[in-house]
Amino acid sequence: MSYRKDMNLATPIKAENPIKTGNAVGHSVCPHDCPSACALEVDLTPDGRIGRLRGASANSYTAGVICAKVARYSERIYHPGRLLVPQRRIGAKGEGDFREISWDAALDEIAEAFLKAEARHGSEAVWPYFYAGTMGQVQRDSIERLRHAKRYSGFFDSICTNPAWTGFTMGTGALRGPDPREMALSDCVVIWGTNAVSTQVNVMTHAIRARKERKAKIVVIDIYDNPTMKQADMALTVRPGTDAALACAVMHIAFRDGYADRAYLATHSDDPEGLEAHLQSRDPAWASDITGLSVEEIEAFAKLVGTTPKTYFRLGYGFTRQRNGAVAIHAASSIATVLGSWKHEGGGAFHSNNDIFRFDKRELMGTAMVDPDIRMLDQSQIGRVLTGDAEALRHRGPVTALLIQNTNPVNVAPEQRLVKRGFLRDDLFVAVHEQFLTDTAKLADIVLPATMFLEHDDLYRGGGHQHILLGPKLVEPPSTVRTNLFVIEELANRLGIADRPGFGRSEREHIDRILVNYDSGYEHLKAAKWLDVQPDFATAHFIEGFAHADGRFRFRADWTGTPAPNRPPAALGMLGPVEGLPVYPDHADLIESADADHPFRLATSPARSFLNSSFAETPGSVQKEGRPEVMIHAADAANLGIADGDIVRLGNVRGEIRLHARLGGGTRPGVVIAEGLWPNGAHLDGEGINVLTGADSVAPYGGAAFHDNHIWLKRDEALRMAEPA
Questions:
Q1: What value does the mean pLDDT take over residues 639-643?
Q2: HEC profile for 295-331?
Q3: Is the entire prediction scored with pTM above 0.90?
């Protein structure tokens, strides 16, 4: 597909007249792992099926716009390959031979396997493993209640948000910010480290509105020429892991040229004098050498934001998936403080509104049953855990049983070869509750079929906005599939813990309890569809002070002493090379840099038509994405004798894989991009891109650096030998 700057790449899905089509309209919310949590209108046919999905125009953030993959959801819910019955493995692990069994037999086998694992190695031998395949509070988080009631191994959910949340709150003290709808009221929107066209379409809705109505400028900062970059008035392509250097140079210029709001800094920041002195040597020439941007590009960007008070910095997750990611987002958010952008409607810095939602999930998650002596295992290091790494196991016994819901670690987790090796252990029992036979389900002993979001009740919140939304059951599921909550309840019955607090409740009862801090519950929210809980302007913009005890934004980062939304428990301690973190915003040279043996940097960026490993099974998405490829700069390809479409090998100490080459893509020399999390089997040798990604922790509080990998790259020698002389 060729992109044009004037295209509305946010993909508005226009409503059809339900009276004309004969369909009723139901209201729901997209459950997938995305900050947008779009409010949906769903066509419901007279025979009880869904038709087209579209964005709810009455919701002020969704504003009638959703991504095309969700609009085609009927492809997914009625997919002929959907799992419909429980199955037991009958062949060797990895052969994919399964036989249908009953629900009772499947659940009995899971419970028996868990009890055997507990009897042999203690309760920590069982590890319930989950993530954000659904963002529904009840269906996602009920597994934690089972964990705590049974004293199974704990779960440190490091894989996605930790570097970003840690770095942002290091400065602000809270994970909230200016109303995301204020982007439409800005004079400059800086979209930093997120390909919003592909991953958060509603960001573009509001940014484009600002351009149309206010002639606002859109700046995009990323590592390659993706669809969002093509929408930019100013597109800045930086080398991976160098964003903090750009931020420092912008602040250097702000102090140098008088853009810094010194009065604001005096009342709202901790050490502006120390920051200014620190930045004296962080000039544009210094940053140019690190980022690959020209001095002129850096100067132009600094002048634009420095002379535009209503600049809104929309900070994403992508640029934090580096080993210096927490430092990068802290530095980027510091610009808004140096400029005083927070003071203005349509100004400031925003990453997530996670802290504004006052949910009471104590009973849902069973937090009263938490035993602090139970070990915590790092989600990102599942490969190391399952292959017996003593440090990953916290120097305790093995994991010999897994219950997996809402995630696909054999495909999505780093160090894929270790992960797969662990799953192939003969002494490991694995139960997977899934919608499709994923790479992980193929290695399970028991596979259970799961409902999809339109087939059950649940509650959602939007980290990228400010709405609490209800997703009520709109259609009947196939008679043989079951909800996540059903599985947890049935296992609780078989494991002897059904009398513990929180068990025995329906989805609707849990939703009522989660919303106890609001004048709302299931029935009220069903009528209202959503609640807007955006804080007032002064709170959202930190007008009366930031959320640290002294009310000041912290330029001087206390990387080991500051609370964060997902700080590891004391038993885990600090994670990653904390000693390498800078006191002030700075370029931290912690990345997996290119070297003589690995001259290229690889980022595993998201594809527009997939969402992590979801949608990689639907025909519309697969057709649009084509095949797994790696984008290579034309000059690099020429030096290596690689032509467009050639098969190339990529490798590092973790392994190697083969992909087809795609020349161009707007990368910088020395940078390669592999878009999309394709199923492992879609690759030439049956191994996916995460063979090449590392599971070492991002400092200081953990996380996975998916976009921070050095590799070697060469044309496939088998192809070369097959060519005529």
A1: 97
A2: HHHHHHHHHHHHCCCCEEEEECCHHHCCCCHHHHHHH
A3: yes
* Token pair in block for residue 704: 């996975």
Handedness of CA 32, 430, 155, 457 (dihedral sign): positive
Residues 499-521: what's their mean pLDDT? 97
Closest CA to 30 of 40, 44, 41, 42: 40
Instruction: Give the model confidence (pLDDT) of 212-230 as tens digits.
Output: 999 999 999 999 999 999 9
Q: Which single residue is written with the structure tokens 């009220």?
A: 524
Q: In the block, which residue shows the tokens 């492809």?
A: 75
Residue 23: pLDDT over 90: no
Pick from 192, 367, 339, 197: nearest CA to 275:
339
Q: At what angle do helices 284-291 and 243-257 cross, to 10 degrees?
A: 170
- Verify cis geometry, omega within 30 degrees of 0, for the bond prior to 86: no
3-state secondary structure of 290: helix
Average pLDDT over residues 8-13: 36
Residues 514, 137 contacting (CB under 8 angstroms): yes
Sheet (strand 311-315) strand order = 234-237, 217-222, 188-192, 311-315, 348-350
pLDDT value, residue 21: 59
Predicted local confidence at residue 430, as pLDDT: 98
Candidates 608, 622, 605; CA nearest to 679 is 622
- List, for residues 171-188, the tens digit of each pLDDT value: 999 999 999 999 999 999
Start-to-end C-alpha separation, the chain: 36
- For residues 200 and 36, is the Cβ–Cβ distance under 8 A? yes
Amino acid at site 72: R
Strand (E) or helix (H) holding 190: strand 188-192
Tell how strand 154-156 and strand 376-378 pair up: parallel
Q: For residue 515, with 0-12 CB atoms within 10 Å meaning exposed, 13-18 middle and 19 or more buried, which class applies? A: buried
pLDDT at 4: 28
447 forms beta bridges with: 87, 432
**Secondary structure of residue 70 in the 3-state scheme:** helix
Comparing CA positions, the residue from 568, 524, 517 lying closest to residue 326 is: 568
CA atoms within 13 A of residue 268's CA, in its CB half-sphere: 24
The CB density around residue 507, as the number of other CB atoms within 10 Å, is: 24
Q: Residue 15: is its pLDDT beyond 50?
A: no
